[in-house]
Amino acid sequence: MRVTSDMDSENSSDLSILLIEDQLAEVDYIREILSQAKSYSFSITHADTLGKGLDLLEQNHVDIILLDLCLPDSTGYATFQRAHKAFPAIPIILITNINDETLAARAVREGAQDYLIKRKMDSELLARAIRYAIERQHAEEALRISEERYSLAVSGANDGIWDWDLSTGNVYYSERWCNILGLDCQQPANIKTWTDRVHEDDKADFNHALEAHLAGNSAHFSHEYRILTKDSGYIWVLSRGIAVTDQDGHCTRMAGSITDISSRKRAEEQLIHDALHDHLTGLPNRNLMLDRLGHAILRKSGRGGHATDFAVLFLDLDRFKNVNDSLGHSVGDELLVLIARKLQKIVRPGDTVARLGGDEFAILLLEVNTLSMVTQIADRVLDECATPVEIDGHEICTSVSIGIALGTERYTSSHEVLRDADTAMYWAKSEGKACYEIFDREMHSRVVKLHQLELELRRAVERNEFELYYQPIVSLTENSMVGFEALIRWNHPQRGLVRPVEFISTAEETGLIVPMGWWTLREACKQAKQWQQEFPSDMLPSMSVNISGKVFNQPEMMTTLRTILKETGLPATSLRLEITESVLLDHIDESLDKLAELRELGVGLHVDDFGTGYSSLSYLQKFNYDTLKIDRSFVNQMEDSNGSGAIVQSIIALGKLLKMNIIAEGVENNSQLQRLRELECPQVQGFLFSRPVDSKTAAAILKSSLQKFGRYIM
Ligand code: C2E
Ligand code: MG
Ligand code: MG
Questions:
Q1: Which bound ligand lies closest to the C-alpha atom of 497?
Q2: Cα 56 to averaged position of ligand 2 atoms, centre (Å)
């Protein structure tokens, strides 16, 4: 134990005491008893007024203040107040007279660590009091800092806090908790203040989660639910908490937080909405349609084969691509939005209109018990969609093709229903568009077959399973063969030789017609050139090649054609392209350009199947063809009384007038030939002269007629 003078009070290894006391006898007394304390060491600094004491405190480190309440510059409670206010972190022990005791007790309540009565303290009592006072002060300070940190964290976390005393039922709700719910913090609150506000639909789950935790079945309570605020209706919150149990395992208390998660929930809801809706029209998308359809199927199976109670309409806009290509995508988009609005107006509230993608829509109709209910709606859809709309000053006429699948017990998945409706839509398209078709099983098997055909055809293109057959074209005026028409055949590995009628339309739909078309053109040109070299004559046989619209309308059509002519060496004048009139009419401007180029090149142009399409006489002149090929259906029935004969006669007359060549197709017998001669039909083609034959046979025909007659005589 070492009691220092005022001068060496800086020693930091001891507890430094500031003794503020004006009576020197007391000062000596305290120094004396402290010097006797056995287990502690102190250094004492002394001040005889409060002012001096506070100055010393400013300058020196002090562990504890021993403060007399009655000083020359301050007396009573105010003395403590001033010292404590100026240095709240330094513990204060009051040194009082007996008559200051009440005052001292009050000061202890307000933050003084202790009070001791003068002359009544001995050395150990004072030393211990000092020690405890310092420790207590440290503990209090640590607690204060911890509480401050806690309350900062609570307010910073933006969460509301609750603390539920299960034994009394009292709940403490923090200010933030009340703010989140818009409640007044001053109002009395209990557990019902909270639980009564939970949304009716969420109550059962909420209670379940809470009870599970209280029963010890979950480590933490964490639950998201809607809760009623005072002014803003329901909001989404997350409550988390943990229960405290006593030795017997009974829950005594549970505390936790509440977090406002409304904005997160809104973002989540938006995400879910976006995932299930189409951005352009805002309609449900394919996923949502499949989901709702799935529910409809489940309900249907639950009812055990009740009559049709749902139906799906699969819609596809007719010629939407034309709108997009000619007026631009923004007009196309606008059209889709307008169609979406029209469809929404037609259906009832429980039904679903969805955009499946591109120009495809689907409608799910619920509670439809008769077929006529479905067809009435389909008719309305057709009508509404056929009403022209105006976009950006353009009047746009559209139509839709609709496939209908009726809900039957047979369906187990929504994909099947949509697939069948799609199939039916496909038939509606092939029936001429702007109509509806109802799915039946036969459609399905036809589609399966078509699909199979498509697969096989792809393989055939890859493996080049095609072969050209050639049918002679005969001139009646010259009495000789003037050329061949190349006709494609498919050497199917299992089915043998397959005729074009069985695969051309599928090839067109799948686009496979394009590689097939180039192959045919090249092969036919090569063959013609070879024959011209092998069997030279003053009249070289020509080669007619059928060109599909898809191929003719390829942008690189002319370049490819020129390349093929160059590579094969066939003179352009020996080549004739056979095109149906509709191909030209679909793209009139481009067609006119191409026809002019073909003419310049010297390639001949035949209108195939003339009479069957929607040939307009005015176009005949415009397009300036070389040859019209009268469709064999007319030649076939020339002798019937149905007018076919008259048609053949008129076409021949027309050809003469417009100075066009005429070829009558499908001449099978002599009486037909006789009649055509009478009508002065210049050229013919048909089984009567020759069926289409393979290249070897065709070469043999050429060879023998040349040998016999010096020219190609049939
Ligand atoms: P098309 O161009 O009108 O060809 C004439 C069709 O009539 C050929 O049928 C031919 O075999 C047939 N035919 C000719 N004379 C007679 C006859 O006296 N009686 C009967 N009953 N039929 C006769 P094919 O070869 O089956 O071709 C059918 C159609 O397939 C062709 O009609 C043509 O439109 C198309 N086609 C054929 N080859 C090709 C090709 O390489 N490319 C394209 N795009 N289409 C082709
Ligand atoms: Mg033809
Ligand atoms: Mg034809």
A1: 1
A2: 119
Task: Find out whether 685 and 473 touch, Cβ atoms under 8 Å.
Answer: yes
Closest ligand, as measured to the CA of 471: 1
For the chain, how many residues are written? 714
- Tell me how many degrees the CA angle 9-15-16 measures, rounded to the nearest 5: 35
Ligand closest in space to the Cα of 685: 1
Closest C-alpha among 620, 622, 567, 623 to residue 595:
623
Q: Is the CB of 480 under 6 A from ligand 1?
A: no
Q: Which of the listed residues 464, 487, 504 should we mutate to test ligand 1's pocket, taking the one with most ligand atoms within 8 A of CB?
A: 487
Highest mean pLDDT among 171-175, 367-371, 615-619, 704-708: 171-175
More confident residue, 712 or 108: 108
Structure tokens at 639: 């002798």
Q: Is the CB of 611 under 6 A from ligand 1?
A: no
* CB-facing half-sphere around the CA of 568: CA atoms within 13 A: 27
Q: In sequence order, which residues have a C-beta less than 8 Å from that of residue 204 and are 6 or more positions away?
A: none
Between the CA atoms of 62, 63, 68 and 74, what dihedral angle is there, to the nearest 10 degrees? 40
Give the whole-angstrom CA distance, residue 197 versus residue 340: 41
Q: Is the CB of 668 under 6 A from ligand 1?
A: yes
Q: Return d(Cα 548, Cα 404) in angstroms, integer.
A: 31
Q: Are 425 and 437 in contact (CB under 8 A)?
A: yes
Token representation of residue 644? 């076919």
CA dihedral for 8, 10, 16, 17, sign (positive or negative): positive
For ligand 1, say whether the CB of 471 is within 6 Å of any of its atoms.
yes
In this prediction, residue 9 carries a pLDDT of: 38
Sign for the CA dihedral angle at 326, 328, 333, 338 comes to negative
Global pTM exceeds 0.70: no
Question: Are the C-beta atoms of 665 and 685 separated by less than 8 Å?
Answer: yes
Give all strands of the β-sheet with 114-117 in edge-to-edge order.
42-47, 15-20, 64-68, 92-96, 114-117
